[in-house]
Write a structure and sequence with these properties.
By secondary structure, the protein is α/β, with parallel strands linked by helices. It is built from 7 helices and 10 strands. Helix 5 runs parallel beside helix 6.
Length: 261
Amino acid sequence: MPETSSIPDHVKPFIYETLTSKSLFFSSHHIQSSMHILQPDELQFEYTRLMMGFLLFNPHPRKLLMIGLGGGSLAKFCHRYLPQTHITVVEINPYVIALRRDFAVPDDDERFAIIQDDAAKYVCTTDSKFDVLLADGFDISGLPEQLSTRHFYENCRNILSHMGVFIANLHRCNQWFDIYIDRMSAAFDAPLLKVNDPGATNCIAFAIKDDQWQDGNKVGMRRPQHIEEQAWKEILPSIARVFLAARELRRCDRMPQLQPG
């Protein structure tokens, strides 16, 4: 009788390497992450820089949860530039985790940990509370069903601290995109801030727990002291997109609503 593998049926990613970069693929058409070899902590994709827009609402999170590791771009950036933040990354695919050293993802320590688990299960069972939750858990088929239900979004809201920020990476070309947005909005019982990546199909959706948008975004676009000036310059255009979208959302929130008839 052949041995039964203890590892679930996960797709093995592969690495494509050039003289200056490494990229993680699930297939020849599904790039997951890219890293500049000489600048491994740099965010290469616009959508990842947009996700860092949470700094407008909480530049000093105590605890941060990431769903999906990929090549570790967001994990590395946050580990380096948020030195007082405890970071937990939940990744379901053990083959992705096995490539962490290839992408210079730091080892686990007292403030950084990667957990192999189904994130839908994790957010339902954890006792921890997080100030920021970044949801970017895709597989070769796209956004998994268990990471896009209203129940999942409700569990994400439940594990956020007061004024906690939830950020999700979605794709506008997905036929279920509007349904995901509706589920997320219903789970948070609040309007969502949506910011499109102008060069791709990514849409980054933000939700703040327990308060209105006009009470957030008080920090403005000042560089947090713990982020190096060069790194801030690199993400500032993306941060500005989020800032302007949030200002527009607050403006529309204050506009009088037309009554029917």
